[in-house]
Design a protein that fits this description.
- It is a single chain.
- Helix content is 49%, strand content 9%.
- It has helices at 4-25, 54-65, 84-93, 109-113, 121-136, 145-161, 171-187, 196-212, 215-222, 224-229, 236-257, 267-277, 288-302, 304-319, 321-334, 350-363, 396-399, 442-459, and strands at 68-73, 76-82, 100-101, 372-373, 378-380, 383-385, 390-394, 460-463, 476-478, 481-483, 490-493.
- The strands form 4 sheets. It has a 5-stranded mixed sheet with strand order 1-2-7-4-3. The chain has a two-stranded antiparallel sheet with strand order 5-6. The protein has a two-stranded antiparallel sheet with strand order 8-11.
- Strand 1 and strand 2 form a beta hairpin.
- The longest helix has 22 residues, at 4-25.
- Belongs to the cytochrome P450 family.
- It is a peripheral membrane protein.
- This is Cytochrome P450 2G1-like isoform X1.
Length: 494
């Protein structure tokens, strides 16, 4: 007969033994890592980080531990870098040591082993070089990317005229235009806004991004093995990614059937031509898996970030009509009303250029950047960061640094203007990160934001049913991301 006391003792013994085992397996004291909260067995520093608001949690830890500190994702350490000096020192001065991408346990292995975003080494170098060159010299003399953006901006203007000045939610329209630019570059054609295939495609991207910025994904990082078998919305991620892959694979088949290597129409044609050129090379990185995932990488990098930033930009101008009026005066003076704005106009429009920069700074669309990983044991600021340690670049602490921007929590285009009203650069303006892994689509995103914004304000005046002073411009925090609050506006023809 087993007595209750014996049962309690046995359970206590088992729990103690389990804790000792977990403590033994937790890598404390393994390296001279930066300071941080003491990790617990199995859960690491989980109780110091609110998965609903990682940004707020990390800001509090920065106040306590300084610009470089360590948190634990389960048993794995992650070094967090805050402020311009620490991030520049890591990503520029130690570029090679911090140039690799960290593993993404939430994603299927195929999407981390192929493509241009999450891969490392020679695969990443070749794919990035090819992608940058193809986007820069697009189409071998065919229509430029700028022309495609101008075309899409024109379609948007015609679509918004149908609202007849009535209030509407701009999120769907802005999602359509940013996605259509990528479609034009990658697939060679845009889609009508009512196209069911296009709507389904955008809906899948939106569902995936909602999941990636949800607390469920943070739990996948903390407990990767457990979350692979645990029920929850995160299990749908693989289903959505498979559907996207099937869509892209179908487009690749269509391109292969009509390919003319001497006249590539888009990114897929250029990649297929490169595949044919390297057909006899067994070590070639130009294979269909890399094409499929790179195309998906371009969509995720170039759609939601631009549409979200545009959505925030329009909200900010809605709140500050005096800034909108200054931009429109500059548009009228430089561009006029009879032609489309072009990138050549930007140098003559310092106030508009500064406003676009300030929208990017204030929107802060990627607060934590994309995680990196140390490629070797690295000495950094007196600490030893072991090979394989995750690196988080906390970009919010740069873009909202009061030492770098006079009024960091206020929307102020003056941050990028000198005393004479000329455009002024800031070294701390790095919303697209820095170093060897700087965002592949930075130039495209900047072009889109400038051309879309100037085209809209050339044709419309923004209106709101709310009193301007009552418009809320504070961001909604979604785990490790930021979004503008939902709103409605009116587009009144000028």
């Amino acid at each position: 007969m087993v007595l209750p006391g014996e049962v309690s003792f046995f359970l206590a013994f088992c729990i103690a033994a389990l804790l000792i085992l977990l403590l033994w397996r937790t890598p404390t004291g393994k390296a001279n890592l930066p300071p941080g909260p003491t990790p617990l067995p199995l859960v690491g520093t989980f109780f110091h980080i609110n998965v609903q608001n990682m940004i707020g949690s990390l800001l509090r830890l920065q106040e306590k531990y300084g610009p470089v500190f360590t948190v634990y994702m389960g048993s794995q350490p992650a070094v967090v870098l805050c402020g311009y000096e620490a991030v520049k020192e890591a990503l520029v001065d130690h570029a090679e040591a911090f140039s690799a991408r960290a593993p993404m346990p939430a994603l299927d292995k195929k999407f981390t082993d192929y493509g241009v975003v999450f891969t490392n080494g020679e695969r990443w170098k070749q794919l990035r070089r090819f992608s940058l060159t193809t986007l820069r010299n697009f189409g071998m003399g065919k229509r430029s990317i700028e022309e495609r953006i101008q075309e899409e901006a024109g379609f948007l203007v015609e679509e918004l005229k149908k609202t007849e000045g009535h209030p509407f939610d701009p999120s769907i329209h802005l999602s359509h235009i940013s996605s259509n630019v990528i479609c034009s570059v990658v697939f060679g054609n845009r889609f009508e806004y009512e196209d069911k295939e296009f709507i389904t495609f955008l809906d899948l991207i939106k569902k995936i991004l909602v999941l990636l910025f949800s607390p469920w994904m943070q739990l996948c990082v903390l407990f990767p093995r457990l979350m692979k078998i645990a029920p929850g919305p995160h299990r749908k991620l693989a289903v959505y990614m498979d559907e996207l892959e099937r869509f892209v694979s179908g487009r690749i088949r269509m391109h292969r059937e009509s390919l003319d290597p001497n006249c590539p129409r888009d990114f897929i044609d250029c990649f297929l031509t490169k595949m044919e050129q390297e057909r006899e090379n067994p070590a070639s990185e130009f294979v269909e898996e890399n094409l499929t995932v790179t195309v998906l990488n371009l969509f995720f990098a170039g759609t939601e970030s631009v549409s979200t930033t545009m959505r925030y930009g329009l909200l900010l101008l809605l709140r500050y009509p005096e800034i909108e009026a200054k931009i429109q005066a500059e548009i009228d003076e430089v561009v006029g009303r009879n032609r489309s704005p072009s990138m050549e106009d930007r140098t003559k429009m310092p106030y508009t250029d500064a406003t676009v920069q300030e929208i990017l700074r204030f929107a802060d669309f990627s607060p934590l950047g994309v995680p990196r990983v140390a490629t070797s044991d690295t000495q950094f600021r007196g600490y030893t960061i072991p090979k394989g340690t995750a690196i988080l670049t906390f970009l919010t602490t740069i873009l909202h640094d009061p030492q770098r921007f006079e009024t960091p929590e206020k929307f102020n285009p003056g941050h990028f203007l000198d005393e004479n009203g000329a455009f002024k650069r800031s070294e701390a303006f790095i919303p697209f990160s820095a170093g060897k892994r700087v965002c592949l689509g930075e130039a495209l995103a900047r072009m889109e934001l400038f051309l879309f914004l100037t085209t809209l304000l050339q044709n419309f005046k923004l209106g709101s049913l709310q009193d301007r002073e009552e418009i809320d411009i504070s961001p909604e925090i979604r785990s490790g991301g930021k979004l503008p609050p939902p709103y409605r506006l009116c587009m009144v023809p000028r």
